[in-house]
Amino acid sequence: MKLIITGGAGFIGSHVVRIFVNKYPHYTIINLDKLTYAGNLQNLQDLEQQPNYRFIKADIANRENIFKIFEEEKPDSVIHLAAESHVDRSIRNPLEFVTTNVIGTVNLLDAARSIWQPLDSAQGGNCFYHVSTDEVYGSLGDEGKFTEQTAYDPHSPYSASKAASDHFVRAYYDTFKMPVKLSNCSNNFGSHHFPEKLIPLCIHNIKNGKPLPIYGKGENIRDWLWVEDHARAIDAIFHNGKVGDTYNIGGNNEWKNIDLVKLLCDIMDEKLGHAAGESAQLITYVTDRAGHDFRYAIDSSKLQTGLGWQPTSDFRKALADTAQWYLDNEEWLNNVTSGEYLKYYEEQYSR
Ligand code: NAD
Ligand code: DAU
Predict the structure, then answer these.
(1) Which of 20, 22, 106, 151 stands the most exposed, by the fewest C-beta atoms within 10 Å?
(2) How remote is the CA of residue 234 from the centroid of ligand 1, in Å?
């Protein structure tokens, strides 16, 4: 099995690559990544000497180059994670999200289609797996959960671009018999998460005594899943999921943003030896995100009953371990928060 994993230098991708390289030594794993601000080869330093792992630096929006790579490498399958992933950035620069998330996905589908001939999803030799998000389903009120049948209703440029790419992947299954699989996952947390997203941003800011920006009243709700659980779900779906099917992945773990940040403050107070309540004093309410989805919650019973996957139950421990990882990896944090990120951060929060 020769497998291209796109976006492997990013947050979730690096966890997926590590699982596949270590668990399947007989597979050749090629990590294809552009190394944007969010991609970092330091995330995979421990795999550099592994004989079944290789890295290719490439932009999925460069159609000619992607076709050339597929022609040369002839991968059997693709797990596609490369994307622009941050909602706030998509509000500032939607076109970048169309270019990578929509055009980049179509380029990969076409490149795979050009070498997987004859294409027949029933034969099961190849797989194009698109890793997507629950944000395509839109926003929930106080009740209910997203199922695989929920109609798409994206609100941000990010979720609109992911919805478009999901539609293309399904269209290639219907039109060309492309052997595809999809999953739509809730909010991940864990190590190697870029500190522009809520949890690593707050850990980083608490460490540096900086404000913790809470959008609006902090009452929006997200369903948090440990990244290792997501990577295990991707492994299960890639190997045992049904061709043409979609699987929802979630933690069954809903938190209001403000409650989550307060829990994180308690954990950080303990770890840093602060007085109880000290970190929470950094909480600062700021202008709400435009078009801010109120609540996400995922029904992942299809994955749980069909493929036997379960999320890790001890959320507080996983969150405390995550906080510890950032405290232990100061060099990583310093590297990723230098340069371009600082410029973005200044612009984002100077209101
Ligand atoms: P990330 O931003 O941490 O990493 C994205 C990776 O893609 C980076 O390594 C980056 O260099 C690479 N990349 C970006 N543009 C590229 C391009 N044009 N060509 C090649 N590589 C490019 O993202 P993440 O949080 O790890 O998310 C990975 C995937 O999972 C995305 O598709 C995202 O939509 C999806 N997802 C994320 C979450 C979450 O909570 N983070 C939840 C559900 C689904
Ligand atoms: O649901 C899955 C999605 O989760 C993924 O598809 C996205 O790639 C990923 O970035 C994440 O999107 P969110 O917008 O939910 O994540 P973020 O960490 O940016 O924000 C989480 C919540 O916290 C959201 O309600 C906005 C709020 N927030 C965020 C930031 C960065 C704040 O209140 N303050 C902040 O500074």
Answers:
(1) 151
(2) 14
